[in-house]
């Protein structure tokens, strides 16, 4: 496995090949996930609170709740992003329960002001640590921090290191929920479509009522149930890398548009086709 480094500001794992910036300090090489982390490192490296090694960024898990607010030298910790902030250079401040909190950015201050207990209360470990590297099983050259989908084939990324913790796959949980809800909505659509082949069925339910019921039930199945497929299909077009999600998106999207046209503007179709679809529109 290639050498990796920890961004000394945000704590993310960074490889030299994908690092946004690099800096040599006190004889050591440091790699950063962004230019912002590099600039903040330069600012903090000269402060009395900077460690001899230059590791001045501290992750939330490394601190106690009391240490999260301030250190003995008067440098405060942004409770949202956990960056070290000096009162003289803080971008924003906020008063809460008689205490003053300092923030590296106005955005952090706004998040804290909206829900201070979220950042001051006990922090539960995340099921998806932000510093875990994920890669594509089909394209190992694709590496990123955190889960996502491969920009080449659209497959879900997997952690590079196998964990012994038996945690549920968030993608599987999400797709399972979409499947069962979509299946419940699809069953009436299937029943109505098949029942149209029965004699005298339309004596009980008119074609117009039947098609509108199908439209109301099928639309969320396609747009919500199939949302992950459409998102990856659109991503494949943006990345100029057609894959199976491109085909799924084009095929399902074309069928949906055709159904909309048949329902709302049937007059655009030739008379023979309208007669053939009398039972559907």
Kindly describe this structure.
It is built from eight helices and eleven strands. With 281 residues, the protein is α+β, with helices and mostly antiparallel strands. It has a three-stranded antiparallel sheet, with no helix packed on it. α6 (227-238) packs across α7 (244-264). Mean pLDDT is 77; it is low at 48-73.
Low-confidence stretches: 48-73
Give the helices and strands as they follow along the chain.
EEEEHEEEEHHEEEHHHHH
What's the helix count? 8
Give average pLDDT, whole number. Answer: 77
Derived from helix and strand composition plus strand pairing, the structural class reads alpha+beta
Largest sheet: 3 strands, antiparallel
First-last Cα distance: 59 Å
Tell me what portion of residues adopts beta-strand conformation: 5-15%
Rg over CA atoms, rounded to whole Å, is 28 Å
Oligomer: single chain
Helical fraction equals 25-40%
Secondary structure tally: strands? 11
Shape: elongated
Give a brief rundown of this model.
With 281 residues, this protein is an alpha+beta fold. It contains eight helices and eleven strands. The termini are far apart.
Secondary structure elements and pairings:
Elements: E1 5-6, E2 13-14, E3 21-25, E4 28-32, H1 35-45, E5 76-77, E6 84-85, E7 92-96, E8 99-103, H2 106-114, H3 116-120, E9 133-135, E10 143-145, E11 158-159, H4 170-195, H5 207-225, H6 227-238, H7 244-264, H8 271-276
Antiparallel strand pairs: 1-2, 3-4, 5-6, 7-8, 9-10, 9-11
């Amino acid at each position: 496995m290639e050498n990796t480094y920890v961004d000394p500001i945000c704590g993310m794992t960074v490889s030299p090949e994908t690092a946004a910036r690099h800096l040599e300090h006190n004889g050591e090489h440091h790699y950063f996930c962004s230019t912002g982390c590099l600039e903040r490192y330069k600012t903090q490296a000269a402060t009395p609170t900077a460690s001899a090694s230059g590791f001045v960024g501290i992750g939330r898990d490394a601190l106690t709740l009391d240490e999260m607010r301030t250190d003995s030298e008067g440098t405060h910790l942004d409770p949202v992003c956990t960056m070290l902030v000096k009162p003289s250079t803080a971008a924003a401040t906020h008063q809460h329960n008689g205490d003053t909190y300092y923030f590296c950015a106005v955005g952090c201050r706004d998040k804290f002001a909206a829900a201070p207990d979220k950042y001051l209360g006990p922090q539960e470990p995340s099921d998806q640590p932000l510093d875990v590297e994920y890669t594509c099983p089909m394209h190992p050259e694709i590496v990123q921090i955190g889960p996502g989908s491969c920009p080449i084939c659209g497959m879900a990324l997997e952690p590079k290191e196998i964990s012994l913790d038996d945690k549920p796959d968030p993608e599987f949980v999400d797709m399972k929920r979409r499947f069962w809800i979509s299946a419940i909505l699809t069953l009436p659509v299937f029943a109505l479509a098949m029942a149209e082949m029965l004699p005298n069925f339309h004596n009980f339910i008119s074609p117009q009522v039947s098609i509108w019921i199908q439209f109301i039930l099928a639309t969320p199945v396609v747009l919500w149930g199939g949302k992950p497929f459409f998102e990856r299909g659109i991503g494949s077009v943006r990345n100029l890398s057609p894959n199976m999600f491109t085909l799924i998106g084009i095929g399902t999207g074309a069928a949906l548009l055709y159904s909309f046209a048949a329902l709302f503007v049937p007059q655009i179709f030739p008379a023979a086709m309208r007669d053939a679809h009398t039972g559907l529109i």
